[in-house]
Amino acid sequence: MRNDTSRSSSSRRSLFSSSLVLAFLLCLILPLSAARAQLTSNPDVNTSIKAHYQNECSIIKNPAPGSQQLFAACNNATGGIFAARSTDHGATWTYPDASDKTIADGDAGQGPLACCDPTLAWDTFGNLYVGYLGNSSVVVLLSTDGGLTFSTLMTWAGSVDQPTVVAANTSAAGAPVAVWVVWNQSGSMRASGAAVTGLGTVGAFGAVQTIPGTTNCSFGDVAIAPSGVVVQTCQNPTGGQGPNSFIRINRDLDGLGPGNFGASITATTTNVGGFDFIPAQNVRSIDAEAGLAYDHFPGTVGNPNPRFGRLYLVYTEEPVDESNNTNIMLRFSDDDGATWSAAQQVNTDATTRSQFLPRIASNRLSGNIAVCWHDARNSGTNTTMQEFCDIATPATSPPVFIGNHQVGDALTSGNGSNPPAAGQLNIEFGDYSGMTYFQGRVHPIWADVSNSTGNNPDGTFRFDAYTDLVMGGAAANEGDPHIRTVDGIHYDFQGGGEYTILLDSDGSEIQARYAPVATNFLVGPNGHTGLTTCASLTTAVAAQVGDHRVTYQPNLSGVPDPSGLQLRVDGVLTTLGPAGLNLSGGGRINKTAVAGGIEVQFPNGMHMIVTPGWWASQSQWYLNVNVARTTAREGIMGDVQDGWLPRLSNGTSIGPRPAPLATRYADLYSRFGDSWRVTTASSLFDYAPGQSTHTFTYPSWPPDTLPCEVPEQKPLEVEFDPERAKAICEEMGIVDDERKNNCVFDVTLTGEGEFARTYELTERLLANATMTTLAPVKPTRPGEAATFNVVVERKVPARGERPPAGTVVFSLDGKEIDKADLDAQGRATWTVTLEAPGDHVLIATYVPAPGSSLLTSSSGEVTYTVVEDKPVEGTITTSSTSRQ
Prior knowledge:
The chain is built from 5 helices and 58 strands. It is mainly beta. The N terminus and C terminus are likely disordered.
């Protein structure tokens, strides 16, 4: 620390005292921390608690906003297709009734000619498609009620294998949605497509095309571009262990138009053949299992997505033939598969073990891509696997993945079931696995023999269909301010002005205003940066939430107002009611259950929690900003994957941490900080007339030497006992070690116990905040019952925590009308019958169980419509259920 000799003797005494304080604080700073993968997952769920064997599973999410519906289908050892549906984000699963012989229930019933190889798609009209192999035929079923009932949509007869169905929005003339089916028949690939114009309204399928150059080609996928172009991939040859197997691409450039698929294009070669035997699958073998996914996210208003229409290809490669060191590879194309990027490896393990059966999907609300696969990296004998996933936010080329994340709870044996139990299929994990990705949630599904959930009725180890919920991780901007990046690095950033602190590839953005604090001392050194500087506080936050701009900041007059901060949406001063505010496009704003802050839910699934604190002696508001479920990679809180700080705003790495402190200072506050500084054009904040971001910009802040002077601000002089600060923070019950250290640091330096209270409120919110989701339902007629499903979950996921318990209170048109207890999975159902036609507003409010530390939450308003049948005045009848 450097002292300024021009200061008074009393200031020098304060500086000397502060130097002792800071020496103590050095003991609190954690060592340089290592980055951690930012993905989180939940406990595995056994979707098929049956007495038989399931594998080769598919899973799909209903893309309707707010929907909680999932549908899964698998091969079933006793024949037919195992099928299951969920109405609570995959927490629990139910099965088709045994009397429904259209599709199997996996135990008592099965389709009359059903065989295997299920494939699923769900369009934005609500049409659910299930394809599978019948008796020498490809069968496609259609459901318009979320998988409750099915009808046969189309059948193609012949010597067929491994069909794939896909449905997607297109911009092709006259075809807002297209559905295509691709399959192998008599050794070549075939395809047919149809236009879809509404729920249950599927046009005639076109004549079956034989795709050129696909003889002895199979085990592939199909995808539809936003433009309507259809691309299929397959692997040639379909037999042998390699080397030099080819992954072929064919394109139908006019989609549902009169043209057909063109000539075969070689996207890449792979040493993984059509039947490549590896230790984890030494009976069935594996293939490259090529998969396709298009980026269907056009961007937001004023922020078009430059990767809109990009096509991704995932597949398995074996660098050295027959080495069993197989890897998951990714390529992309910006010309519908005509040319391809160089390959990049998705799995990041340092082992020579097997990764196989990959699956890829794109989140149409963000453009992010997810890849899941089977991984034997933790198996010493390379014979057992766990499910792994990763997510990329493709703001750069090639995309940068967040970090491999283990999803499966336990190692599951591939060949440990050989010979199989009587009646079971001897194909181990099968030929493929499934995965779906929507609104920030990734749901993989795989064949698992571990019985890690303990659900098998007889305790045996057999292949069941397991799934999980994977989402983004957490980041923080707390205190003076202390940063936690999305990959777990802790560092201090004492900026002066407005900065982008988090940016996702879909344009979701969070900006923070850092206000300098005048002191007669310096703070630091920080454990990660090693720097000692003047201090700042976060005093305002702004966010781009879909197409809406949300700000939470002091009143624009500049006169301190201890009564609270002001919320604005698109520049309009907004007061939140108890039910919060729904934003168009899927966003939402709530009050926090404590502390007078706000919670913001972004359409892509990210959540922001803002906790304010009032520094009375300085007449200043300051904010803790915490983010959960995020896949964002850029900004002050972005990941530190390839340097000592997050990347610069142009996407380049800042490089390794330099040794000289002066160079670190220039790196942090000039190169890095200035690159993320908000401009007049990019600012999301609201300003008083005559003000702009430049009003709050201090280009040379923070100084690394005294004086720490701010115009019209009296310097803070503190001589506070750090042991007393530690006692205050411990008395508040702060548990997280890093947050406790930050609390002691801030209370010591400011002498203000309010900082400890704000940390305690922040930690309580992160540990106990809940979110209540009320799924919308289709309109009903007068006198027809409507059943609503509610799921209550923790806003910040915590592995191993039990689901929330308590009661859900239902309010209809402003009146509390009924309540239902949550079951063991945190769900409740409620049925209402209305006679009066019109729109009705329903709200579900979670009330925690007595003695619970969890906090209440509201679903917000959901509109439920009774369509007019005849003009009658009606009454309301209700019933509620709690499934135990």
